[in-house]
């Protein structure tokens, strides 16, 4: 950064994932490949040799010089809109999300497909009407008696209860078929558009919300410089200086702590050695005293 400031070079940090449209060196690269291919062809046609590690620089050097001329470099910066600054140099189409290029038209699973294609009566055969087969209503006269009416009411109640049970079973079967059909549809959509999922499927598995820590603006500290900054302006230069000073201070603090720890360790070792020497001297004195007493 200091070299750029001294030589009048504007150092610019590109935003992430945009080098394919904002990097000026990408624009003349096609010409570089073309010139390099010409050099390879000339080498092969003249000497019948291929490019090796030894001859690579000899072929690549002239191609690079012919490609990256001052005019080409200026035009590259102009085409990307960096200098002169032109925010409309890059069209919005370059920033659109990528489209789906692969589609898989797969049929649904055979069992469910066969069931859906069959008639309703074959998939869900009607339950046998046991009441109508087992019970036969006796013919009544034009003026039915009380006992006949009561008997007919009982039979109608039993038949009504049976129909209710049949209806409940049919509802359960219908619900299971609808569920299977929706699962097959979701699976087909996933195969048709790989890498995506419908909103219904995404909302089916909600993400638990975590409480964000409340941090005041005064305590927030940015550890890195923001992207797309001109690194040679005064604001960025002061920010870089602060980061450099903080790093140096941290290194100095760490070095001092290590020196203090080493000094403490050396003091402990010295005290331990002195203590051992004193104990050894006392032991020697006791041994001499015992020898004198024995003599």
UniProtKB/TrEMBL annotation:
It comes from the Eukaryota. Residues 249-295 are annotated as: Disordered. Residues 249-272, 281-295 have a biased composition (Basic and acidic residues). The keyword Coiled coil applies. Residues 146-187 form a coiled coil. Keywords: Coiled coil. This is 7032_t:CDS:1. It comes from Cetraspora pellucida.
């Amino acid at each position: 950064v200091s070299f750029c400031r001294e030589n009048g070079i504007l150092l610019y940090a590109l935003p992430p994932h945009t080098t394919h449209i904002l990097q000026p060196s990408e624009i003349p690269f096609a010409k570089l490949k073309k010139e390099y291919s010409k050099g390879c062809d000339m080498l092969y046609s003249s000497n019948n040799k291929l490019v090796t590690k030894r001859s690579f620089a000899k072929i690549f050097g002239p191609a690079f010089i012919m490609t990256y001329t001052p005019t080409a470099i200026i035009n590259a910066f102009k085409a990307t809109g960096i200098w002169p600054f032109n925010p409309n140099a890059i069209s919005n189409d370059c920033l659109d999300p990528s489209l789906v290029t692969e589609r898989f038209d797969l049929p649904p699973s055979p069992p469910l497909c066969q069931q859906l294609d069959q008639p309703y009566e074959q998939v869900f055969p009607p339950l046998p009407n046991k009441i109508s087969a087992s019970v036969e209503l006796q013919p009544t006269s034009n003026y039915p008696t009380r006992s006949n009416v009561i008997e007919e009411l009982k039979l109608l109640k039993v038949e009504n209860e049976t129909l209710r049970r049949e209806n409940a079973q049919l509802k359960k079967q219908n619900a299971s078929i609808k569920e299977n059909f929706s699962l097959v549809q979701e699976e087909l959509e996933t195969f048709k558009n790989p890498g995506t999922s419908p909103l219904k499927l995404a909302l089916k598995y909600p993400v638990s919300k975590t409480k964000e820590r409340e941090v005041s603006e005064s305590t927030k500290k940015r550890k890195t410089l923001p992207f797309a900054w001109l690194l040679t302006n005064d604001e960025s230069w002061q920010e870089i200086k602060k980061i450099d000073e903080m790093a140096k201070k941290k290194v100095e603090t760490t070095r001092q702590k290590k020196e203090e720890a080493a000094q403490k360790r050396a003091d402990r070792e010295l005290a331990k050695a002195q203590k051992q020497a004193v104990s050894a001297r006392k032991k020697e004195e006791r041994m001499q005293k015992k020898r004198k007493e024995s003599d």
